[in-house]
Amino acid sequence: MWHSTRVADYRELNRANWDDRVPAHLGARQYAVQRFIADPAFLSHVVEFDLPLLGDVAGLRGVHLQCHIGTDTVSLARLGASMTGLDFSAPAVEAARKLATATGADATFVQADVYAAADVLDPGSFDLVYVSIGALTWLPDVRRWASVVAALLRPGGRLFIRDGHPVLWSLEDGRDDDLLVIRHPYFETAEPVVSDYAGTYVTTDAVIEHGVTHQWNHGVGDIVTALLDARLTITGLAEQASVPFEALPGQMVSDDRGEWRLTLDQARVPCTFTIQAVKRA
Predict the structure, then answer these.
(1) Predicted TM-score of the model (pTM)
(2) Using CB atoms within 10 A as the burial measure, which of 12, 134, 266, 277 is most buried?
(3) Once rounded to an integer, what is the mean pLDDT over residues 203-208?
(4) What value, to the nearest 5°, has the Cα angle with vertex 280 and ends 131 and 106?
(5) Residue 114 pLDDT > 90
(6) What's the half-sphere exposure (Cβ side, CA atoms, 13 Å) at 162?
């Protein structure tokens, strides 16, 4: 059930939920942790999908914000970047560190809230800020996030973000028909959308004990304007008809790349977007 309300500190609720997800995700085929350890050339399907737009990252100093258990971070390190991952979940950071050690990846991990990233990392020193699927929806203020990105980047440094499209997040899920119905806010609002769901987006039998989460949507205009106001120049904007998990259960089919698309008329809705931006001198 979803409803709108206000909470004093959303971080504690969301952190407890993501702490609970770590054991389930470590054993899930979608994250393929054991394959990372067994195959030195293996990359996450998220990073594989990003590569045509991401391009060559070899030799770059990068930071992955909201990195979770580090599979995308390690993938970027395998492509030649020197990576730092940051996440607010202590169990996720511990799991990411173990993965980096087991794979010998050039990746270190820091536990901190994303809004504090410029306080705990080296501001103005990163060539690349990377953000992957399911990041912005957990943050109440996209302008504050954009200012953190700008603070981390060196002049000429680049932001790369592929995330769930705000149109997708606004849709009602769990329907038993093929209709796409706008149910939740498209634009950023002061109050969160609150969910109570004892599951997660991977295939698992695990039950999430702390199921209550608070999330916010951010329209494409909200995101682009926030980046422009943070003195970043937009260099790319793309929209995709797929997402790396079954965002609308019963209405999507998967492909051999680990992406999910609408079963019927895939052109009806954008599922993800990619924005690239460069910090101006």
Answers:
(1) 0.94
(2) 277
(3) 80
(4) 40
(5) yes
(6) 21
* Length of the chain counted residue by residue: 281
Which CATH topology does 2-279 take?
Answer: Rossmann fold (3.40.50)
**How does strand 82-87 pair with strand 61-65?**
parallel
pLDDT of amino acid 31: 86
Angle CA 204–140–277, to nearest 5: 90
Beta-strand relationship, 126-131 and 61-65:
parallel
Structure tokens at 242: 């797929």
> What is the Cα–Cα distance from 157 to 235, expressed in whole angstroms?
12
pLDDT tens profile 213-249? 999 999 999 999 999 999 999 999 999 999 999 999 9
Q: Give 271's Cβ-side CA count (13 Å radius).
A: 21
How far is the CA of 5 from the CAs of 136, 188, 222, in angstroms?
19, 14, 21
Q: 4-33 burial by CB neighbour count: b if 16+ within 10 A, else e?
A: eeeeeebbebbbbbbbbbbebbbebebbbb
Q: Return the bridge partners of 243, or none.
A: 260
Amino acid at 263: T
Contacts by 93-97, CB closer than 8 A, 24 or more apart: 95/22, 95/26, 95/69, 95/70, 96/67, 96/68, 96/69, 96/70, 97/70
Strand duo 82-87 + 107-111: pairing: parallel
